[in-house]
Design brief:
Elements (H helix, E strand, L loop, with lengths): L36 H75 L2 H24 L2 H30 L3 H9 L1 H77 L9 H18 L3 E8 L2 H8 L1 H18 L4 E7 L2 E6 L5 H16 L2 E3 L2 E3 L3 E8 L6 H18 L4 E3 L4 H21 L2 E10 L5 E12 L3 E3 L5 H6 L3 H15 L8 E6 L1 H4 L4 H12 L6 E6 H6 L1 H14 L2 E7 L6 H6 L4 E4 L1 H5 L5 H17 L3 E3 L5 H10 L3 E3 L25
Parallel strand pairs: 6-7, 9-11, 11-12, 12-13, 13-14, 14-15, 15-16
Antiparallel strand pairs: 1-3, 1-6, 2-3, 4-5, 8-9, 8-16, 9-10
Helix pairs in contact: 1-2, 1-4, 1-5, 3-4, 3-5, 7-8, 8-9, 10-11, 13-15
GO molecular function: catalytic activity
Organism: Methylibium petroleiphilum (strain ATCC BAA-1232 / LMG 22953 / PM1)
Protein name: Diguanylate cyclase/phosphodiesterase
Length: 684
């Protein structure tokens, strides 16, 4: 069955953090580098507005051009029409004047009266004026043709008419009649009439052609405007279609952003609830089961605090990648918030299948992660709830998976637990205890107890170990086993240590000055770069020299983060503290690694001391640790000594120091044995 990454379409979403609890730090690493939701929608809407604006501007320009062209065309057409009308009028007037001149000439010949000659002469001036007006209206080629055709005819006709009029004047009407009736006069007169007709026709045709040309130009311009309008409409359609596509894409991106965690690309809490509701509805109809796995990263917060959000974000992205890699068909993953993830299995899951999946998750998270030059190990704890057995809605299932997670964390980190009906009470009790712890830190309810560490050969107290006790207002005095793990889970271990140290330093004046005070540092605190400055500030506040404080670091904590271990060991030694390697033998450190760490004592874990007589293997381990301490030139301290026989055997094996109920239980400073030994420390 193909592996399913998660239930969002965009499986490889850009990385940025939706950050229910933290702000994104590596949006630049995300493929595509997504814009914010408002920018995506705004960009699509902006493009649509720009396209519409361009079209409106283009339409306004086209409209202005159309109006301007229509005005210019109308003006030109009106001028051409006027010229056409003038050409028609002038042509008609020329024919009429020519006819009147011909009639006046004929009447002068027939009647012999001088007044007809005078009329003929007066019409000549009018004819010349009309010719000049016609030339102003006619095209150049018509004028040239008219001049070439009429120049000689007009001159010859004028000569013949002058001769005829002179004949009429002297009474020779017959001579004048012969001139007008002669073939030459008729030919030249006909030639002039035809030339006038052609000239008039050419003038009118030119005016009409101009009008037609204007109309054709108007038609072409109109067609051009229509084409431009069509292109503009096509442009608008394409841009709006593109804007619609981008807007739909933006809408999809908005939906994706609303449903996905931007850092890991996984579905977020809201999308998880939707998917769980759909999956439960399917399971309800089919009569099948669901499993919800609540996954909490064990050591993420110290890594994030020490190395910063950039490293923390990359760790979360690697966690998401590993989770997606191990999921199979029907299994989906979401980021629930902070360092919590949820896996939803919507097949007909048996408890064993959910158990195996949880084991795969724990194994995948326990593998070291290479984050740039850093190698970090976080681990994970898993709580499991099932539908419909443990709940019938998403919130209830998640709450009960979280309850199972609480129990798994309380039992051991890197484990898993199924929900059962008793967990709600346990979780409520744990939540109340956590709140009471916060209140107790404010009220100073955590008190300092001390257990002596003695020299085995003399049983003289050499130093004391500081141990916390909680003076609970209702439950009385609580040992560390009932609250230390909770303090670590709640991120209160640092504040708890400082509070108890402050109380312990107030008791130091009652203790011999040569006694050192040992204090345990939790694994999370090793990754806190403010640890040493905080200790120095507290010592300075009470006037206690750093050499008076012995800091105990567990072997497991040192192995877990070697770079942080080297740093904190270096800082502690430079500040003047002594350092003890605590619970030695329970971790997996190598001798080569131990040789790099500058510690002052080795503590043998109590589990080996308790089984010293029953298990030969324990005796061999203890003997090897004591031999190692001698070779390194540091004393060994055996924890958990409860019998004289164990103390004697350890002394014979070469162990220098011991601690346990044999020499004294943890007690307040005033009840410690050996308080009369040596001078007291001066009060701060």
């Amino acid at each position: 069955m193909p592996r399913r990454r998660h239930f969002l379409d965009a499986a490889n979403a850009p990385a940025a953090d939706g950050r229910d609890m933290r702000a994104p730090a590596e949006a630049a690493d995300a493929p595509g580098n997504l814009l914010p939701t408002a920018s995506i929608v705004g960009q699509a809407m902006g493009e649509a507005r720009r396209a519409l604006g361009l079209v409106l501007v283009g339409a306004a320009v086209l409209l202005a051009m159309l109006v301007g062209e229509r005005w210019l065309s109308s003006t030109a057409e009106q001028a051409a029409a006027r010229r056409h009308a003038e050409a028609l009028r002038v042509a008609g007037a020329m024919r009429l004047v020519d006819l009147e001149r011909t009639t006046a000439a004929q009447m002068a010949v027939i009647t012999g009266q001088p007044r007809w000659v005078e009329r003929f002469d007066s019409q000549r001036l009018e004819f010349e004026r009309l010719q000049a007006e016609a030339r102003s209206l006619a095209p150049a080629h018509a004028i040239e043709r008219f001049d070439s055709e009429t120049l000689s005819a007009t001159a010859e006709l004028e000569d013949m008419r002058e001769s005829a009029f002179e004949a009429v004047t002297v009474g020779a009407a017959d001579v004048a009649r012969k001139i007008f009736e002669g073939n030459r006069y008729r030919e030249q007169s006909a030639l002039l009439q035809q030339a006038i007709a052609d000239f008039s026709e050419a003038t009118v045709a030119a005016a009409g052609a101009e009008i037609n040309a204007l109309r054709r130009r108007n038609a072409l311009f109109g067609a051009g405007l229509l084409v431009c309008g069509g292109l503009l409409g096509a442009f608008l359609w394409r841009r709006l279609a593109g804007s619609r596509t981008r807007f739909l894409h933006a809408e999809q991106r908005v939906k994706h952003l609303a449903a996905s965690d931007l850092l890991t690309g996984l579905p977020n809490r809201a999308a998880l609830h939707d998917e769980m509701a759909a999956a439960m509805a399917r399971a309800e109809r089919a009569g099948t089961h669901l499993a919800v796995l609540m996954i909490d990263l064990d050591r993420f917060k110290p890594i994030n605090d020490r190395h910063g959000h950039l490293v923390g974000d990359r760790v979360l992205k690697e966690v998401a990648r590993r989770l997606c890699h191990i999921l199979r068909g029907g299994e989906t993953c979401a980021r629930y918030g902070g360092d919590e993830f949820v896996v939803l299995v919507d097949d007909d899951v048996q408890p064993s299948a959910a158990h195996h999946l949880a084991e795969r998750v724990v194994r995948a998270m326990s593998e070291p992660m290479q984050i740039g030059p850093l190698s970090v190990t976080i681990g994970a704890t898993v709580g499991i709830a099932r539908f419909p057995d443990d709940g019938r809605d998403a919130d209830e299932l998640l709450r009960k998976a979280d309850s199972a997670l609480y129990r798994a964390k309380a039992e051991s980190r890197g484990g898993l637990s199924f929900y059962n009906v008793g967990l709600d009470e346990l979780v409520a009790e744990r939540a109340a205890l956590e709140q009471a712890m916060r209140d107790g830190l404010t009220r100073g309810e955590f008190v300092a107890y001390f257990q002596p560490i003695v020299e085995l050969n003399s049983q003289r107290v050499q130093s004391v170990e500081l141990l916390a006790r909680w003076q609970h207002p209702q439950r009385g005095l609580l040992p560390p086993a009932q609250f230390i793990a909770l303090a670590e889970d709640a991120g209160l271990i640092g504040a708890l240590m400082l509070s108890v140290l402050r109380n312990a330093f107030a008791e130091l004046p009652a203790l011999p000055a040569h006694w050192r005070v040992s204090v345990n540092v939790a694994p999370q605190q090793i990754q806190d770069e403010t640890l040493v400055p905080q200790l120095l500030a507290l010592l300075a506040e009470h006037g206690v020299p750093p050499a008076r404080l012995d800091v105990e670091l567990t072997e497991t904590a040192l192995v877990r983060d070697t770079s942080a271990a080297r740093r904190v060991m270096r800082d502690l030694k430079l500040a003047g503290f002594t350092v003890t390697l605590d619970d030695f033998g329970t971790g997996h450190s190598s001798l080569a690694y131990l040789a790099e760490l500058d510690f002052d004592k080795i503590k043998i874990d109590r589990s080996f001391v308790h089984t010293l007589r029953e298990r030969p293997q324990s005796a061999k381990v203890v003997d090897a640790i004591i031999g190692l301490s001698r070779s390194l030139g540091v004393p060994a301290v055996a924890e958990g000594i409860e019998t004289e026989a164990d103390a004697t055997r350890l002394l014979r094996m070469g162990c220098a120091l011991g601690q346990g109920y044999l020499f004294g239980r943890p007690v307040p400073a005033g009840e410690l044995p050996g308080l009369g030994e040596g001078p007291r420390a001066t009060a701060a």
